[in-house]
Structure formats: C-alpha cells, structure tokens
Amino acid sequence: MSVLFTSISPENPVKKEDANQLLQALGLSVRPEEEDDFHTLLAAVHDCAETVSNLPDYQPVPDLKRYPRQNVRRPSPEEQAFGQAWAHKFFIQGNPHGGLLAGKTISLKDTIAVAGVPQLLGSDIIPSWTPVTDATVVTRALDAGAEIHGTSTCENYCHSTSSYTSAQGTVENPFASGYSSGGSTSGGAALVAAGLVDITIGGDQGGSIRVPSSFCGCVGLKPTYGLVPYTGIASGDAINDHAGPIARSTLDVALCLDAICGYDGIDDRCLGSPAHGSTSYAEGLRNGPERLDGLRVGYLKEGFEHAAVDAAVKHVVMDAVGKLAELGAVVEEVSIPDHYHGPAIWTIQQRISGSMTLLGQAHGRRGLHLTEMERERLPWTADGFERAFPSTKNVIINGLYLTTKFPDLYGKTVNIGRRLRDLYEEVFQTYDVVVMPTTPTVAPRHGSRGLPVETLKPSMGLTINTAIFDVTGHPAMSMPVGFATAKDNAALRLPVGMQIVGGLWQEAKVLRVGHAWEQHYDWKS
C-alpha cells in the first residue's frame, strides 16, 4: 500500500458510515467488522487528496508579454456576424517576424483555451470559465505569425451538428439565413465562408469540422488521430478528439496544418506524430504536380448508396469524382460493407466515454488537464442539468445506461473500431484516397427547441459518412464541389461537400487531391 496514514485527525471530515454510503449506489457494502479499517483508509486517502489539492498546478505558462491579449470582450450586436458567430472578440498579434501564417487572420473554436479569455462552450450550464494557459495550437499559430481575432461560437457542449443549440444564440448559414451552418464548429465555418477570417481552428469528434465545412462551402480537415496536439482543448471523448483547420482553400488548410501539427511533449495522443516543424504539406502543394495522373481514387459504394443520401447531393459529388478522372486519376468503385456500422460503433463509444467526461470520470490519458474548467462544471446540480441541452442530457443518460446494462460493450466497440480501421487500411494499399459525400444533404433549416426528439431531429443522420473516421482515426477532408437545391425551397441552392479520406498519416495525398480539383474547377460555377 502506497498511502501512509496515522491516526485520524479531529479535522478530517470522513465519517465511519461514508464507505458504505459510497458503495450503496452499487448495491455493495463492507462487513461490520471491516468498517473501522475502511474508515481509517478512507480518511488517509482524504488527507492525500488535501495535500495534492494544495499543491500548485502545472500548466504551460503563456508568453503574455510577447503575445498580449487586447480588448477581450463579448461582441456587441454591431460586431456580431451571422447571428451569434463570435463567442468573444479580442486581438492577439502573432510573431512580427512572420512565418507560415504571416498575415493570416484566425478564429478559434470556443473549446480552445486562450489565457485570459472566458470560455463559454456554447452553454449556460455553468458560468464562463477563464483559462490560465494557451492551447498548443494557439501558441503555434501565433509563433507562425497569425493574427487571432477571437473565439467563434460552438454548439452546446459540442453535442450537435446543428447550429441553433448554443446558449449564446443561433449561427446562420452564410448562404441563407434560417438554415444551419452545421456544428459543432458552427461559428468558425460561417466566419471563414464569409471571408471574415482566413482560417478557423476547430475540433472534430464525429464530424464537427467537416459537417459545417460542407454546409458553408469551406475546406475542413480532420487530420489523422494524434497529428495535431489536443493540449488545452476541452475534450469530448479522448478516443475521438481531433483538432484541425477550416479555410477557403486547401492551401490555407495545408499551411495551418504545417504550423500546428506534431508532438508537443504533452499530449500522449501525439506520440506517433512527426516532429513539429518537420512537415511540408503546403510546399508539396505549391511544388507538386498540377494533375493527378496515375493516382488511384476509390469512390465508396456505401457512402453514396446509404438511404439518407439525397439524390441531388449524390449527383453533384459523382460529377466532382468524374472531374478527378479528367485530371488523370484512375477512378473505380470500392465497397466496404462495414462502413454502414460506423455510426453505431461511434455512438456507443461516444456515449460511454462522453458521459464519463461530463461526469468528471475520464482518465487514462497523459496530457494537459484543464482543472479550472472541471472545478467550475462539477459536481452536476439539478439546476445545471435542467439547463443542459437535450443532447447533453442524452449523452449522460445513454452512457449511464450502457455502462450498467452492457459492461463489456465499450471495449468491444474499441476492438471493432480497430477492425474498421484495418479494413480501410487494406483499401489504402490499392487506392490513394477514397471519396464520398461529406453530408447526406445540404444544410437543413434550423430546428426548434421543444421536447428532446423534436429538438435533436435536425442533426440526426448527418454524420453517417463522417463519424466512422473519428473511430478509425483516418484523415478526412471536406471540400466544396458545387450546389444542390434545398429540400424545402426549390429556388435556394446550398453548398455540397465531397469528403476525401486517406490512409493513416497520408494527409499529403488528401490535400493533393483537393488542391488539384480546386486549381482546375470553380465549385461556385
């Protein structure tokens, strides 16, 4: 035993009955003759906890002298865009000597820690909390010369692919007010699409970079799991956490990826990633071939033939695939029947792991833990739960149910997820990339806040082609390839996204395909 103890001090709050009360929820108890000993042991661990609580925390110290935060504020109505696209406005000037992102303007999803800037997480369950550190991606963007103009609205605890769930307000689609900009990186995609910033750095646990990119006509990349450090970003589910850029061009995505990727010495997700500063994604696009001669592209049968995929979206993406053939690519149909299992596997993983995160029970990772946020949001209260968006309540309820009724299921989903990864890796032995529609439809109208099913309905089914790659960890990028008619308005045309997926650590191939398409075709025409 590593816990040292002596007699229980009078100040120690642990009571003799506490052990049994803790076990009662599990239907367990200790024998009467054991109560005194477990009281002593529990009191000892309480003393250990008090000792650790009184130690100073250890978080990276941001260089506020070099990168001061200027005029941090909640935006006024006059400063807002597309409803509530901005979470906080401020200005941080990056490296004055330039770098990969010199002159580029950036917003950050409101899950990314910026020291001194309150974070809302799209919620009002708790008051905004203020980080004391900068996320690794923030430091790296600033070192690369970027100008950061603020944090952009995310959906309520990031539990939605709609854009009307944030407690701060609705984010409107830049192409049509009243329609979704996607989620959960909703505000950032709208700001990029409108040209108000060049790049947004977002997070993706099920499609939260790619869905809004598809709806807003942006290029959005979910990199290989672990390529970009998640240090200092509020976690949804450690096994699905990805961070990456949204921009208006593949080249800007590549520039940002070069600037922010690589192990940072903190996040254990990144242990297998290349050294920071060693990648050359943007240079590869600038100096590489303009055509795709000899490159092998598979278009995924299951990604197109799912019943939820709108015929107009399928037609636009198939037309875009045909243009890859015009650029010299060898284009063939591929089939991975288990692709259809992706949403179910993702749902079980996310509900169980996501609920543990919400309840403060996530563990097993070496990295930076945002202790200020945990102190603010825990423990849950009846009032906080009542204010939670139905999707957040659903994650907690589902997770508690699954861990009680299916105790082996989380581990099984991890095992099957690895099988899905291996099935895709087999395909990537023959094909350089696989393509499919990003989302099955164009942006839908905003939903309404009512009973849970009614409220969640607008998001249902949108991640049938995206969530699986959070499970497998493959790099996946959405790029705009045309327009299709809105389901409820024949006169309205909205962006369509094509998803390009590559083998693990094969971002260069994904970016090359997207860049070549962009250089030869104008998606807006």
The separation of the N and C termini measures: 70 Å
Shape, principal axes of CA atoms: globular
Mean pLDDT comes to 95
Compute the number of structural domains. 2
Number of strands: 14
Roughly what fraction of the amino acids lie in strands?
Answer: 15-25%
What structural category do the secondary elements indicate? Answer: alpha/beta
Instruction: Give a short account of the largest sheet.
Output: 12 strands, mixed
Major β-sheet strand ordering = 1-2-4-3-7-9-8-13-14-12-10-11
- The helix tally amounts to 17
CATH architecture of the largest domain: Alpha-Beta Complex
Quote the CATH topology of the largest domain.
Amidase signature (AS) enzymes
Radius of gyration: 24 Å
Lay out the secondary structure.
Blueprint: H1 18-24, H2 35-53, E1 70-73, E2 86-93, E3 105-109, H3 136-143, E4 147-152, E5 172-173, E6 176-180, H4 186-193, E7 199-204, H5 210-216, E8 219-222, E9 242-247, H6 250-260, H7 281-287, E10 296-300, H8 301-305, H9 311-326, E11 330-334, H10 342-358, H11 371-377, H12 382-387, H13 390-405, H14 409-427, E12 433-437, H15 452-456, H16 467-472, E13 476-486, E14 489-502, H17 507-520
Parallel strand pairs: 3-4, 3-7, 10-11, 10-12
Antiparallel strand pairs: 1-2, 2-4, 5-6, 7-9, 8-9, 8-13, 12-14, 13-14
Verbal overview:
This protein is of the alpha/beta class and 525 residues long. The chain has 2 domains: 1-55, no CATH class; 70-520, Amidase signature (AS) enzymes. It has helices spanning 18-24, 35-53, 136-143, 186-193, 210-216, 250-260, 281-287, 301-305, 311-326, 342-358, 371-377, 382-387, 390-405, 409-427, 452-456, 467-472, 507-520; strands at residues 70-73, 86-93, 105-109, 147-152, 172-173, 176-180, 199-204, 219-222, 242-247, 296-300, 330-334, 433-437, 476-486, 489-502. The chain has a 12-stranded mixed sheet, with helices on both faces. Strand 3, helix 3 (136-143) and strand 4 (147-152) form a beta-alpha-beta unit. The relative contact order is 0.12.
